[in-house]
Amino acid sequence: MKLLDGKIVADLVQKEIQKELSRELSGMQPRPPCLVALLTTDDPASLHYVKRKVHACHEVGITSRVIQCNPKETKELLELIDSLNEDVSVDGILIQLPLPLHVNLSQVLQRVDPRKDVDGFHPINVGKMFLGDPDAFYPCTPLGIKVLLEYYKIDVSTKHVVIVGRSNIVGKPLACMLMQNAPGCNATVTVAHRHTTNLQEICLAADVIVSAVGKPNLITADMVKPGAVVVDVGITKVADANTKSGFKLVGDVDYRAVSQKVSAITPVPGGVGPMTIAMLLKNTLKSFYLHR
Ligand code: GUN
Fold first, then answer.
1. CA 122 to CA 113: how far, in whole Å?
2. What letter does residue 267 receive in the DSSP assignment?
3. Which three-class secondary structure state does DSSP give residue 16?
4. Measuring from atom 9 of ligand 1, which residue has the nearest CA?
5. Dihedral (CA of 79, 139, 211, 236) sign
6. In the chain, % of residues over pLDDT 70
């Protein structure tokens, strides 16, 4: 069984970015890339993720700024986004999700300048991704999964990939990316979701299972074909008396049993999570090159 170690691959990607930036910035480049993250809630998980993103930026030489706000209405956030769109010193804008319920998600995501949309959530980028346009910003988690599989030479071409979860952030874009007629893609993709009745049968037919639901132990060993590849995107905090903090993070997959059966599997934590952050850095570098 091969462990698909996202930490190792993300570190390699980050080192490359760091090297590239130190080369760029020793030349004529007047300033480093800049990412601005908008944090609109005091949700501890969002705060944690934004801190990790900021830390990663710092490590590779990308400057970053976190704007913490508590928008009373959508308009407030739209005005803030307008000012960041116009600010020539800002390359990438990231709006940490979820937003507060009273804020209109679609209006907010559409307000970000598509050229600064490092999360790839703007409909222009979603549309370009749909068409397989390499100039698009691709969403970080699906892109990270693709890069991780490529690094470990897991070719999805002609394989049956079952994606469990149809979110706009992971399931839908990943399906779109892996089914493209392009190198490293050409998979046959099935997307399952909460209304799928025969999940076990569908998963048993998969060469690659990607689970992105956020439900511990959703994927059990009796749902996995021997030798399959399993990518676990789920991340849930569960109580654990054996740890100092009193909790631990688990994925969607019953790791202990499933890892006995598969040819490769991602751990949680240390699998997809670090890859998401590495791809955010890559997208920020891409937006930097677009703006200079
Ligand atoms: N919330 C959960 N995943 C993500 C992500 O990839 N980007 C942003 N901005 N928010 C998220």
1. 8
2. -
3. helix
4. 96
5. negative
6. 100
Taking CA 120 as the corner, what is the angle to CA 26 and CA 248, rounded to the nearest 5 degrees?
Answer: 90
| Ligand 1 geometric centre to CA of 96 (Å) | 5
Indicate the average pLDDT of the chain. Answer: 97
Evaluate: CB of 95 within 6 angstroms of ligand 1: yes
pLDDT of 105 over the 80 cut: yes
Position 178, amino acid: L
Whole-angstrom distance, CA of residue 111 vs CA of residue 103: 13
What's the pTM value of the predicted model, to 2 decimals?
0.97
Q: What is the C-alpha separation between 255 and 241, in angstroms, rounded? A: 19
Alpha carbon of 27 to ligand 1 centroid (Å): 33
Contact call for residues 228 and 207 (beta carbons, < 8 A): yes
Active site residues: 53, 96, 119
**Ligand 1 pocket check for 140: Cβ under 6 Å:** yes
Amino acid at 84: L
Find the DSSP H helices in 122-240. 123-130, 140-151, 171-179, 199-204
Query: Is the CB–ligand 1 distance for residue 169 below 6 Å?
Result: yes
Which residue carries 């202990």 as its tokens? Answer: 256
Q: Is the peptide bond before 269 cis (omega within 30 degrees of 0)?
A: yes
